Amino acid sequence: MRTIANGGVNMGYLSLGQAAKEAGVSKATISKALKTGRLSYVAKSTAGYEIDPAELFRVFPRKPLATVESERSETPEVTGKSEAEMLENRMLREQLEDMRLDRDAWREQAQRLALPSPEQKGQEGKRRRLWPWLKA
Prior knowledge:
There is one protein chain. The chain is mainly alpha-helical. It has a domain at 16-73. It has six helices and two strands, in the order H-H-E-E-H-H-H-H. It has a two-stranded antiparallel ribbon. Helix 1 packs across helix 2 (27-36). The relative contact order is 0.08. Mean pLDDT is 78; it is low at 1-9.
């Protein structure tokens, strides 16, 4: 317990972390309730909030400690992929395959256009005059 400046004893106010443990919720939940005004506090200092337990349990009903501890230790079991996930996965794979086929087709077309045509290959040896009407 902390002592108050007037010499009295703090009547068991809770810090943010203590309030979260007592209520069985996260510190973020308590903090949000304080900021929105849903939960009031006695004082706020650089050390943190001082929360009256009666006010805390008005907003967040008290849970038995055993229930709180068991809820924290339980992790949800993963039962596998749902139908929706499997469907989405299949659709994405099909989309990816279509995109790969399109990419390959565009690559082929670009290579065909970049290579010289057979007619141009035969003319490489001939030298073309710049002004054919002028005779040298």
